[in-house]
Each structure stands twice: as structure tokens, then as C-alpha cells.
Design a protein that fits this description.
An 8-stranded parallel beta barrel has the order 1-2-3-4-5-6-7-8, surrounded by 9 helices. The longest helix is centred in the last third of the chain and has 17 residues, at 250-266. The relative contact order is 0.17. It is α/β, with parallel strands linked by helices. It is built from 13 helices and 8 strands.
Length: 286
């Protein structure tokens, strides 16, 4: 069982969803990624999703595209993502880390080399946006042999055959894209997403995470009532960039932004064992 699978088991026993924030390696400061990861954990992150810088993202909106461009301009590459995880593991051996990005940098490094280095660094799962499940069988097997998970995206437009293939190969969790659009797009229809996840639960026992369109405590709480993971990216990345522009600490900005979302997810009524939110913590969210 991977570290990520263990974390979901723990949270299932607690009766709540995971909160998984996303940051880009090397942004807003090339040397600050590990500090940001620790700050997110202090603020209540149950796992950390770490972006691998890439020049041609296809699923990312302008905020994360900008983060990737700044990271690349500062010289950050895939190896820096792996180095950040390795440094993070010097102090934190428990929090799962998911690498998210695109296939090209992995192919340049070489799949065998990537798996070996990712495993040595302490990576727990990989999400490759542009890797179709029809071509992922061997990589999924090799990652599992190294005790790492391969996470797949499922979107509202994903055809049933591809959903079935993704669910058969995925491990760790399944990432449901909440809307038709790129990261950072607004307008999530929470009721529709709830219905979609109910349909997926009939077909898979994998934990179901929801991302794209979550940027505040209210939405996080609503999704946390029925999802197994609440994933937030663009809103956080934007806050970090703005803090750096003002000369403020990105790590402090990360904690300030994430803490209310963490309280909201922990108090989501549908996931509390007694189905009752904690009044004191709920007041802090408001």
C-alpha cells in the first residue's frame, strides 16, 4: 500500500475528505518550493500536489501557465521537482506528494530514470495530464512496482470507454475535473459534480478527488461533503505570486490562504463522523 493510499484510509476512518493543494516547483521563488510544501502541511494539507514546469501545458489556465513560465525562466526543470521532494522528505516522511505535469519532460529524462529518481526522492504518485490511459499500461505497472501510484484525470467530456480504462489503471485516487475548461476557470456546478461522483462510485472503489474551480472555503466545504479529496491550485498559486510581488513571505501567504479551506473541509457536514460541524472552528471559517 502506498503512502497516498494509507492517507486516504486514515481519512476514511476519520470521516472526512483530504485537502490537496497544488503549487508549481520554483514559483514564486526558485529556492522556496520546499518551504512552501512545509507551510502547506502546517496549514492543514493532507497531501501536496507539486507541478513539474513545462513550456506547453494544455490543461492549465493563465495563472498556472504564468507560474510555469516564471519557473522555467528561473531555470527550474523536472530535476528540481525531484530535488524539492527529496529535501521535503528530510523532515516530513508522512505527507504524500503527487507530481503533476506533462509527459515530455519525463520522456526526455527517460521513464526508467524518472521512476528510479522519483522513488528515491520520496514521490508517492504521478499525474500526467497528457498521457492517455490507452498508452499508460506499462508505466502504471512500473510505477506500482516502485510503490508509486498513477493518477488519472476524468472530465465531464470523457467518454465511457476511456473512463473505464482510466479506472482500471489508476491507483491512489481518481481526479475528477469539475468543469469544461482549464485550471482557474470559475462557475463550478456543485450539484452536478455531486451527481457525477455518485455515478463514478458505482464503477470504482478508488477515492475520488475534485479539482478545477475550487478557490475558497465555501466551495471547498461544499465539495468536501461528498468528495474524498478537495484539490485547490490556481487560487493558491495566484495568492503566492501576489505575495511575492508585494515583498511578502510566500510561505506565510500559503498558510494564510489554506488554513480557512482546511477548516472548511474538516468541518464539511457530510464527512463528519457525527454529521455535525464543529461550531467553534466553523465560526473561524466565517
Amino acid at each position: 500500500m502506498s503512502r497516498l493510499e494509507r492517507r486516504f484510509e486514515e481519512l476514511r476512518r476519520e470521516g472526512r475528505a483530504a485537502l490537496i493543494p497544488y503549487i508549481m516547483t520554483g514559483d514564486p521563488k526558485p529556492q522556496g518550493t520546499t518551504d512552501l510544501m512545509h507551510a502547506l502541511v502546517r496549514a492543514g494539507a493532507d497531501a501536496v500536489e507539486l507541478g513539474m514546469p513545462f513550456s506547453d501545458p494544455i490543461a492549465d489556465g493563465p495563472v498556472i501557465q504564468g507560474a510555469g513560465e516564471r519557473a522555467l525562466a528561473a531555470g527550474c526543470r523536472l530535476r528540481h521537482s525531484l530535488e524539492a521532494v527529496s529535501e521535503f522528505r528530510e523532515q516530513d516522511r508522512e505527507t504524500p506528494v503527487i507530481l503533476m505535469g506533462y509527459l515530455n519532460p519525463i520522456e526526455i529524462m527517460g521513464r526508467e530514470a524518472f521512476i528510479a529518481q522519483a522513488s528515491a526522492a520520496g514521490v508517492d504518485a504521478v499525474l500526467i495530464v497528457d498521457l492517455p490511459p490507452e498508452e499508460a499500461g506499462t508505466l502504471a505497472e512500473d510505477l506500482r512496482a516502485a510503490e508509486m501510484d498513477l493518477v488519472f484525470l476524468v472530465a465531464p467530456t470523457t467518454v465511457p470507454e476511456r473512463r473505464e480504462r482510466a479506472m482500471s489503471l489508476a491507483s491512489g485516487f481518481l481526479y475528477y475535473v469539475s468543469l469544461k475548461g482549464v485550471t482557474g476557470a470559475g462557475g463550478m456546478d456543485v450539484a452536478r459534480v455531486r451527481t457525477e461522483l455518485a455515478g463514478l462510485r458505482e464503477k470504482t472503489a478508488l477515492p475520488l478527488g475534485v479539482g478545477f474551480g475550487i478557490g475558497d472555503a465555501e466551495t471547498a466545504a461544499a465539495v468536501g461533503e461528498f468528495a474524498d479529496a478537495v484539490i485547490v491550485g490556481s487560487a493558491l498559486v495566484g495568492q503566492l505570486h501576489e505575495a511575492a510581488d508585494r515583498g511578502e513571505s510566500p510561505a506565510i501567504a500559503a498558510e494564510t490562504f489554506l488554513a480557512p479551506l482546511s477548516r472548511a473541509v474538516r468541518n464539511a457536514a457530510g464527512n463528519k463522523p457525527d454529521n455535525q460541524p464543529d461550531k467553534q472552528e466553523d465560526a473561524a471559517v466565517k
